[in-house]
Amino acid sequence: MFTGIVEDLGTVVQFSPCGSGAQIVGRTALPAADFSPGDSVALNGACQTVERCADGMLTFYALRETLNKTNLKYLRAGEVVNLETALRLGGKLGGHLVSGHIDCTAAVQSIKERAGDITLTIARPPVETFPVVAKGSIAINGVSLTIAELNAESVSVCIIPHTWEHTNLRLLKTGSEVNLEADLIGKYVCTLMEPYKHRPSVSMDDLRRAGF
Length: 212
Known about the structure:
Elements: E1 8-18, E2 21-27, E3 40-43, E4 46-54, E5 57-62, H1 64-69, E6 80-85, E7 104-114, E8 117-123, E9 137-140, E10 143-150, E11 154-159, H2 161-165, E12 177-182, H3 184-193, H4 204-209
Antiparallel strand pairs: 1-2, 1-6, 2-5, 3-4, 3-6, 4-5, 7-8, 7-12, 8-11, 9-10, 9-12, 10-11
């Protein structure tokens, strides 16, 4: 479990196809004591398991499923990635609950400066597979953000200067593909409501037969 608060900008050192997936090696400035083999780390918001850690280098193995569903498949040496270590019990929940399980990717439609803030607009995924609400939470490349504007075609978030400078969102361009994770609680609510979506409405006769 993560919170969407990026702790470090890592640099990809190596991306190598390996079996049906890929091995990713990255450099981090975070203390070596923060990592052990088997630990979970969010890489651009995607939860990955540390295979090796030594001398500021982290090695991960990304499954084919992960590559298919995320933008990790586009990583190459020299690229910058958002890194976050797993939330510890008793730690600060500075963003929102983020599972590190990417729902889908979407393309950046525009990046605009507005009154000192940056407005990032991305294509909206299908409503039935990606539940979002205005002023609700969303994780973009693993960064916890609040939805500022929402319509049928797009989702917009406003990014403060600190977040812009300390994440790889500042490196995005129009057309860039970003990892998206919808709000965890919202996804559970939608799943629980699914069986009731297509039921006929309740009539007064139904209520009387039920004893009301």
